[in-house]
Design brief:
Length: 309
């Protein structure tokens, strides 16, 4: 405390005091506007108070895009879909009247609204806005068709179709996303985003019953994760890949099970991994399973996993 007191004393004795004081008053943190007050209340999760200030700010500055974007963020958390759509339309109309620099804001808004619908399981609407975001990105990055943002749009469409149950369509978009990522990250073929695409393709093929394809993609995802997390071989993402491989292998016709048990673990705060493990009647035909089982058990045991029978 004495050190802090000395600093304050020196500050008030400093010849630059008036200049520093003026700078502080002009700093954004000391802005007394409704907009800033709304953001401060939002930061402390006081959404009702935040909305009150932001709506006043919007009324006073109806053409200020950032205020609308902040309102949109809060509306997504607190308002019914119709009100979210209304604020979204205002953002789009405002973006259309302003210069090209706001194209990225428009894309972000389309994407955010699509994410909102996706979260609500309104997949048809989500797909519609993911397409809008994709089409705008294709124009924005016309000179760079392998931009990661385009891959992200294809991946989002894959997720939406997968959620809708149209797994073959999801595979098409996941593959497009992967193709771009392989080019965008060609100097880093072990990028986690590439592993994520392999994982998504593995899940989609699993849903279509094409288990050999599913295993091939999950194995590729695992291979990358083992390199990415080389210094942390017990990373939950690695356990997840082992679990995916094991779960798919169980579904193949050649495999017969006698009993199963579940391992519940919490490797990191808020990260839970469940591994379904099955003992096979004919172990010599299931070398993949045995390899996977051993790896999962090692990860679980080293993380003090509790085994439930």
């Amino acid at each position: 405390m004495l050190e802090v007191q000395n600093i304050l004393i020196n500050f008030f004795n400093n010849d630059e005091h008036q200049k520093i004081k003026l700078n502080l008053q002009n700093n954004l943190l000391f802005d007394n506007s409704h907009h800033i007050k709304g953001l401060v209340h939002a930061r402390f999760l006081q959404y009702d108070k935040s909305l009150e200030y932001l709506e006043k700010a919007h009324k006073n500055h109806p053409k200020k895009l950032q205020i609308l974007l902040d309102l949109y963020f809060l509306y997504r958390k607190t308002k019914p879909i119709k009100q979210v759509e209304n604020i979204f339309k205002q953002i789009i109309n405002l973006c259309k009247t302003q210069d090209e620099i706001n194209m990225l804001d428009t894309i972000c808004t389309y994407n955010n609204l699509a994410n909102y619908y996706h979260k609500k399981a309104h997949y048809h609407e989500a797909i519609k806005f993911y397409y809008k975001a994709l089409n705008m990105r294709l124009k924005a990055y016309e000179a760079n068709p392998n931009h990661p943002d385009i891959a992200s749009s294809y991946n989002n469409l894959g997720n939406a179709y997968d959620g809708k149950g149209e797994h073959n369509q999801a595979i098409i978009f996941y593959q497009k996303s992967l193709d771009i990522k392989l080019k965008a990250y060609k100097t880093n073929p072990n990028h986690p985003y590439i592993a994520a695409s392999y994982n998504n393709l593995g899940n989609a093929y699993n849903s279509t019953g094409e288990y050999d394809q599913a295993i091939a993609f999950h194995q590729k995802s695992l291979d990358i994760k083992l390199k990415v997390y080389k210094s942390n071989p017990n990373h939950p993402d690695i356990a997840s890949s082992y679990n995916n491989l094991c779960a798919i292998d169980l579904k193949r016709p050649s495999i017969s099970s006698l009993y199963s048990f579940t391992l519940d673990s919490c490797f990191l705060p808020f990260i839970s991994c469940k591994c379904s493990l099955v003992s096979y009647r004919n172990s010599c035909r299931n070398s993949l399973y045995l390899d996977v089982l051993g790896s999962v058990l090692n990860v679980c045991l080293e993380n003090n996993v509790k085994i439930l029978s």
